[in-house]
Every structure is written in structure tokens, then in C-alpha cells.
Request: fold
Amino acid sequence: MRKEGSKLIAGRIVEVEAYLGADDAAAHSAAGRTARNDVLWGPPGHAYVYFIYGVHYCLNISCLPDGEAGGILIRALEPVSGLEAMAAARELDGLDFDSVRDLRKLGSGPGRLSDALSVTRPRDNGKDLLSARCDLQVRDDGFVPDWIETTPRIGITKSADMPLRYVIDGNKFLSRP
Reply:
């Protein structure tokens, strides 16, 4: 969720992928610790934001103990609150907020959800996403899915066969079924 003054923009995380250090050729940390990927080396719960294809930012969360590299890429959100603000941030006019097809345009994909939450590397990289004082947070809303499906990761070529993509089975807001 993103807090901007009295405005709250939030979505439920419905799809993630894990990237796990030196043994994972697709991980940004596979080549070792650098100034760019330092957040991935801990402590856990911090935002690692990178720019992809010269177009979109992608939001990751450091996830392993301090000193061990690992991150979770947030791939998709189910919009929950602040839909109008999300649409404005994505520069989408005329969305039907009762249509799943239109709502998918807000957070179904890592670039889309970062745009919807106004996530950028200069603004958010390194933030403690577990701090109640942070304007960008990960919070538990109490939702319990019926089933989490595990699949190979998507959109990559290196280590693509690793079963490190986790999705809420049947959710309509996944980046891909």
C-alpha cells in the first residue's frame, strides 16, 4: 500500500517470484554484491527497485537474513483501495471500476503495479516496507487464499525452469494464468 497524506492506495499481492542469490542465474545478486543490488543482501523487508526495458520500475522485497542475497518480485496486485488514484497514476482514463478486465490494467504485471503505486527507484529503493512510518508498506489484510499454486518463473531466460513463482490459484488479477 502507498500512503500519500490522507490518500490510501492498496492492492492485495496475488503473484510473486523468488530470486535467490548466487545459485540463481536470474537473480540480480547472482554476480555478487554491488552498489545497485545492495538492498537484496539484507536486512529483510526492504524495497529493491530496478528499472526494466527503459520503461518500468519493478518492486522487489529483500527476503533473506542480513548478509544473504534474496528477493521477492511483486508481479501482480488485486486492486483494493484508491482505484481512481491508481488509474490516474497509470494515465488510464475511462476505466470501468466494476469490470475485472479494466481493473486488471491497474496491477496485473510488475510494471503496471509499480506505476499504479507510483514506485520509482529514486523515491523508494531501500525503504523499510514493514515500518508503519513508511509511505510504502506491506501489510497483512487477513485474507487467506484457498490455494497457492507454484509454477516456473515467467518472462526470463536464465534459470526459468525453477519453480519459484507463487500465485493465488484462480485469481483474475495474475499477470498470466
